[in-house]
Write a structure and sequence with these properties.
Length: 366
């Protein structure tokens, strides 16, 4: 794929080709870091670090080949199934088989208020929250397509309900941004402005009615609010500002080039063991911190540069994309969480394709 990317006749040109090529070469350098435990750590790490970018840039230079419009109806069906199952899980006791995680010990405290945190068809909550990030992108793409506004607002309501039932604070942030962008699109588009304003006002006024008359909505909102308020008294500040603090006050002994790709990846560490330098570093959690451990500040800033390149070559309005990319750089695991990577790629490309087709005066989604 790397050879395809740099040689294909419609590939990125000029600085774009140079940056992508240099990034791949830089990753090879980081993968061969002698401070790593084994060379296999580096190989696995290379695939994890390069997978997102190689896939996105191949899409960007071949938009017409990737017909995401054919996934619209299937996506609506999948969303409906996940939401329906989530509602069932939320109303079942945590001992029910539908609420079992692969790791029972990890799921022992997976509650939001007095209800279980739903995971849908996924084995872990993190998989479901990754799926919820796709929901926001999908709704954004539907707004560009000018899909029936009632259908979109119904999907938005159930998506938001699923976010609340998941108990994930980060999921709410990543979901809210693309949904806000979709609402702005309705308000800016002359042909849908009047309908968008009326529908938005009705939706805002309708929510209190649902809260007061539907127990499920009231419980989901109250439990989520309780989780957030408890977080403010406990680890909320760490979760919000922790990623930035870990970068500013990085405590590793290898701040320039790190200790090697894959050094913090649990999958390979469980089989081949950890590097001495990772053991010496101690506990790590945040994605930005892990990037620093593996590749130092050199890799950290190269990664930001790649996000900037992705931002530059996409058709998404720069006003929407820049704050979103800032958040995913620091708060979302687009390196080690494979489901998150997949849903980000599909969602991002789906929105970009919608804007691209609209610019071509051919909506294309059916």
């Amino acid at each position: 794929m790397f050879i395809f990317l740099i040689s294909y006749r419609r590939s990125l040109t000029g600085d774009g080709r140079i940056i992508v090529g240099l990034y791949g070469l830089a990753l090879i350098f980081f993968a061969l870091n002698p401070l790593n435990a084994t060379i296999l750590h580096g190989i696995v790490g290379f695939m994890l670090h390069f997978g997102l970018w190689i896939t996105c840039f191949i899409y960007l230079q071949n938009r017409d080949v990737f017909q995401f419009e054919r996934l619209i109806r299937l996506a609506i069906i999948i969303l409906s199934i996940e939401f329906f199952l989530g509602i069932i899980q939320y109303n079942l006791p945590n001992t029910h088989f539908l609420n079992k995680y692969i790791d029972d010990e990890a799921g022992a405290n997976a509650f939001v208020g007095d209800r279980v945190r739903i995971s849908g068809t996924f084995s872990y909550i993190s998989g479901f929250t990754a799926f919820l990030s796709f929901c926001g992108f999908f709704l954004w793409a539907l707004s560009i397509r000018r899909t029936n506004i009632l259908i979109r607002y119904v999907l938005t309501f159930f998506s938001l309900l699923a976010v609340l039932m998941s108990g994930s604070r980060s999921a709410l942030i990543i979901f809210a941004m693309p949904v806000a962008a979709s609402i702005i699109e309705d308000l800016l588009e002359a042909r849908t402005r009047a309908v968008g304003i009326v529908t938005f006002v009705i939706a805002i006024g309708f929510f209190p009615l649902l809260y007061n008359n539907l127990e499920l909505v009231a419980v989901a909102v109250d439990n989520y609010a309780l989780r957030v308020s408890n977080g403010m008294e406990g680890d909320q500040d760490r979760r919000v500002f922790g990623p930035l603090e870990e970068v500013i006050n990085f405590r590793g002994d290898q701040p320039v080039f790190g200790v090697g790709l894959g050094a913090t990846y649990a999958g390979v560490n469980s089989v081949l063991g950890k590097s001495y330098y990772v053991l010496e570093y101690g506990y790590y959690e945040e994605i930005a911190e892990r990037i620093l451990v593996e590749g130092g500040f050199v890799l950290f800033f190269l990664r930001i540069l790649m996000f900037g390149l992705l931002y530059w070559y996409s058709y998404l309005p720069k006003l929407y994309l820049l704050p979103f990319l800032i958040i995913v750089t620091f708060y979302f695991n687009l390196c080690f969480n494979v489901p998150q990577i997949i849903y980000f790629i599909v969602g991002f490309c789906m929105v970009d394709k919608a804007y691209y087709l609209r610019q071509q005066q051919d909506v294309g989604f059916t």
